Predict the structure.
Amino acid sequence: MKFYLVLWICKFISEIVNIIDNTRGTKLAGEIACKLYGDEFIGKFKNINPEKTVFVTGTNGKSTTNNIITHTLRMSGKTVASNLEGANLITGVATTLIKNSLYFGKFKKEFLVLEVDERSLVRVCKHLQPNNLCITNIQKDQMQRNAEPDIIYQVIKSIIHEDLTIYVNNQEPRGKSLEQFVSKVIYFGMEKNEKSFVKDGFYDITMPCPICNNRLKFNYYNIDNVGDYECESCGFKPKEDVEYAAKNINYENNEFMVDNVTYKVPYSEPHFIYDFMAAIVVCKNLGVEDISEAFVNFKNVGGRTGTIKYGSKELKYLKVKTENPETFQSTIDSIIADKTNKIVVLALEELAEFFPPFTNTFYAYDCSFDKLKDANIERYICSSRAVAYDSANILKYAGVPKEKITVVPTDDDGAIVKELNKYDIDNIYLITWSGKYKRLSKYIKEMPKQYEEEK
Amino acid sequence: MIELNVAWMYPDILCLHGDRGNLLALKIIGEKLDVNVVIHRINSYGEDIDFSKIDLVLFPSGEIKVISKITEDLLRYKEVLKDKSILAIGTAGSIIANKTTRKNGEEIKGLGIIDIECIEREKFCGDDIYFEVDDFEMIGVQIPTMDIKLNEVKPLGKIKYGYGNDGKEFEGAQDKNIIFTNCLGPVLVKNPWFTEQIIKKAMKNKGVEIEKNINKEEYDYEINSLEYIKKFIAEKESK
């Protein structure tokens, strides 16, 4: 009876929240439910079919992959409950169930597709076990709380059960090596293509082999730490002739082929292609065939980019996930690919996602900045009260002359605008976290008068 | 130009916290001191290592799961390593320590070339670290996954903010030319005055005195970084 009472209260709250402030609608009801009933709440719903339940987890790409899977299932006429807005903790899972169930706890959709934060997996799986687990990749991330990728690896390993099918990237060593613990594995991948690259500089590093802990050698990469690898010690390498590998990738036309079917996609950066590939293997295994048609009109929620415009200036925002070298490297590569004159604003701030806030910037030294020197960058602006000088030092170590670097040691958004206004260059790249991007967007939106004065 | 030969130990395996920056720092600061820093990558287990040609051995931080294999591989060089200049960073302390006790009670044997022990912690959260060494200050971050117990060795520094070895007074350890620090950053990038000292001590151990001192103005970014982060820490403490 208590479950029903909590469910009714939380359904009511969910409705009210949606009316008042729908930005809080993704987790508040679930927060209250877990507080009133405990984590067991998510295990009390009826009619959830584990075979039609998919959890998407991993370091990078889980929101996008989750969203593509949900979109594709819906386009094929299935009903799906999902946490599309990235509320990926147990409270977001609970909210999704509250919103998609009837008054007596009967789950009313056919499929349940959930993005689940790696650290929340154990807590969620204790009460709600999927038969499908899609692991996008396991990379260095949020070192403040994760310390090392092996901690996440062990978490994922601990939730594996005998009925579980895992979907892994054949070219991502850590995820792929989880194959040894399960009976059913479906692999996805991508063939070598025009954006594949080699890193063989003296200071370039790879990673330890997840099987024997000796060094892995990469013959090429499709994205950082993902590609064709081989352990010279134990022979661990990608499985050959994987059925679901993207072939004939055409970045200009946003197309690739799998199993003689052409997929036209709205986003075709290599990391997106991996996300689409993950969605293809999951959806195919769930019995959906008409996938390619669904991809055409997929729109990503959130995403890693954005634009702020003011006057003739255009600030292109490139998101860095905190303490995540792979996303940092992607932003640098995007900047290098644009050969026109530009300004780069490096607005790394202290990390405040967890307590206590701290000033880490070491992840940047896992990235290769060397080519920035040749990318027609007229000026670098390093801004933030805590780590502006550290950011400038990163550039110094990348060989950027000090004369090109301006240090603005403040979190004040106006200071960035004031600095940008000194230059006639309109093409500006902003590397920062999403919080800073939102603050700066808001500042610029509200500033016309101020801007005039400053100018 | 005089040479400092550095062994970069297992860079692909000990690859956690941007430690390649430390090698760049040695190279850059070496140049300022008119020392040609030559870096030798020791890539895989079982490689023959000619430590007679090495003046400084650098162990970057790595995942704890790789430590026992590394220690096993290096046991053959234990005696020669005892007399080398060594810098071990973060979890690499486990390699040179007597032993590491994991959360599940499992014990990993270290090389035992510095008298410290490591005890893996149940819970941790990364934070800033700020401490004093001799006549200078050091700054960085720490992910305190282990408590470090010092036996018959001196600490490297005295904590002014942060967890350090065990949440109490001290940070790191040193015994003759072997140094361990919890400080990440990369530590040699953020604290070039420490890097200068490491290079000079390693050269002295080789029998070469470096008299040149680097003009502090060349460290303006690093000095400013130190000051701004000290301010950030002070604000954090006052809350």
Chain B has one domain: 2-238.
